[in-house]
Amino acid sequence: MLKMETLNSTHPSTAASSSPLESHVPSSGSGNGNEYFYILVVMSFYGVFLIGIMLGYMKSKRAG
C-alpha cells in the first residue's frame, strides 16, 4: 500500500516556500484566445439548453 508522508510543520515544504503570487502570474502569449473560446462554447451550450427547456414548456402550455 502507498503511504502518505507526514508533513513536518517545522521544516518548510517546497510548495510552501514559493510565494503564492508567483504561481498566478500568467505566461505571456500562451493563451491565444482559447480561454475566451471555451467560455463562448460553454455559454452557447447553456443557452441552447435553456431555449430547449423554454420551447418545451411553451409547447406544453399551448397544447393544454
TrEMBL record:
It comes from the Eukaryota. GO terms for molecular function: delayed rectifier potassium channel activity; potassium channel regulator activity; transmembrane transporter binding; voltage-gated potassium channel activity involved in ventricular cardiac muscle cell action potential repolarization. The keyword Transmembrane helix applies. Keywords: Membrane, Transmembrane, Transmembrane helix. It is a single-pass membrane protein. GO terms for biological process: potassium ion export across plasma membrane; regulation of heart rate by cardiac conduction; regulation of ventricular cardiac muscle cell membrane repolarization. Residues 9-29 have a biased composition (Low complexity). This is Potassium voltage-gated channel subfamily E member 4. It comes from Urocitellus parryii (Arctic ground squirrel). The lineage of its organism: Eukaryota, Metazoa, Chordata, Craniata, Vertebrata.
